[in-house]
Write a structure and sequence with these properties.
Number of strands: 0
Keywords: Cell inner membrane, Cell membrane, Membrane, Signal, Symport, Transmembrane, Transmembrane helix, Transport
Radius of gyration: 22 Å
Shape: globular
Distance between the termini: 24 Å
Membrane topology: Multi-pass membrane protein
Family: Belongs to the alanine or glycine:cation symporter (AGCS) (TC 2.A.25) family.
InterPro entries: Na/Ala_symport
Protein name: Na+/alanine symporter
Order of helices and strands: HHHHHHHHHHHH
């Protein structure tokens, strides 16, 4: 129950505030839209979906998000292609910055590296959710013959998010030469895209950010709703939760960037702390499952199937009908 409460706090409330803040920053930077108006518009778009009346908005967002993601990656690859000669310098800059080589001369390398690592861990955790324990909420809805194969798919998702999408964004920013202008967040990415593609790139990024963030708001709500129903499955609790979600969307639209990120860092830390302890306690079952998967692969089984009743140590640990 404690983990469910933390997930509701993180995904249902705080993360939705972060996503709303990102949408406001993107539209404000691209077109100068008023943040109050954007916040109200987000609430009006979100409310019909989470209250179950209008699913068409969610379906349109789900269809457009992969298309926008593909276009964004193509833009990043184009930037890499036209700046191919600068890639060795880019890699050198990343390595020097990560290891604090420039700061070492001033005697502050340790602090600089620790700060860079801390910020990287926090933003990476928000991006790919690795170690937070939230992804199983989605993975559990999949139909898989073996838990290890589903785990491999989840690992691949982390790789794509971090090593492809995030690296592409970093490349655009660093190759544009705007990373030392004191900008941060969406404004930094928009400035970098503008330097490569002009105003149309900024507009595209704002639309893409809206779709990514809005679909995340809906996905976050779905995560949290299941945990609300797990704790107290009644209409009054669900109604109250939905109203608080809408309030947090509006709050995020109006709040400052540092405030929403500080809240997100705290919520992520609580989830990760509980989940990592649980992972350690459950690790012996993990090795049992992984060993079963590897034995079947070595035996030539193309699609391994897990049967929990073959392992007495899992008796009472796995619900019947799951595996």
């Amino acid at each position: 129950m404690l983990f469910a409460l933390c997930l509701i706090l993180a995904f249902g409330l705080v993360f939705n505030a972060v996503q709303a803040n990102s949408i406001v920053a993107a539209t404000e930077g691209a077109w100068g839209w008023n943040r109050y108006a954007v916040g109200v518009g987000l609430v009006l778009l979100t409310a019909p979906v989470i209250f179950g009346g209008v699913r068409s908005v969610a379906r349109v967002a789900e269809w457009l998000v992969p298309v926008m993601a593909l276009i964004y990656l193509l833009m990043a690859f184009y930037v890499l292609a036209i700046h191919a000669a600068e890639l060795p310098g880019l890699v050198a800059l990343i390595v020097k910055s990560a290891l604090g080589l420039e700061q070492a001369a001033g005697g502050v390398a340790g602090y600089a590296v620790s700060q860079a690592m801390m910020l990287g861990i926090k933003r990476g955790l928000f991006s790919n959710e690795a170690g937070m324990g939230s992804a199983p909420n989605a993975a559990a809805t999949a139909t898989s013959k073996h838990p290890a194969s589903q785990g491999a798919i989840q690992m691949f998702g982390v790789f794509i998010d971090t090593m492809v999408v995030c690296t592409a964004t970093a490349a655009i920013i660093l190759l544009s030469g705007v990373h030392d202008q004191g900008l941060s967040g969406v404004a930094l990415t928009q400035k970098a895209v503008e330097s490569q593609f002009g105003p149309i790139g900024v507009s595209f990024l704002a639309v893409a950010m809206f779709l990514f963030a809005f679909s995340s708001i809906l996905g976050n709500y779905a995560y949290a709703e299941g945990n609300v129903e797990f704790i107290r499955n009644n209409k009054r609790a669900l109604l109250g939760f939905r109203l608080v979600v809408l309030a947090m969307v509006m709050f995020g639209a109006l709040a400052s960037l540092p405030l929403v990120w500080d809240m997100a860092d705290l919520a992520m830390g609580l989830m990760a702390l509980i989940n990592l302890v649980a992972i350690v306690l459950l690790s012996r079952y993990f090795f049992t499952v992984l060993g079963d998967y590897q034995r079947q692969l070595k035996a030539g089984v193309a699609a391994p199937e897990f049967k929990a009743d073959q392992y007495p140590e899992l008796a009472g640990k796995v619900e019947k009908g799951v595996w």
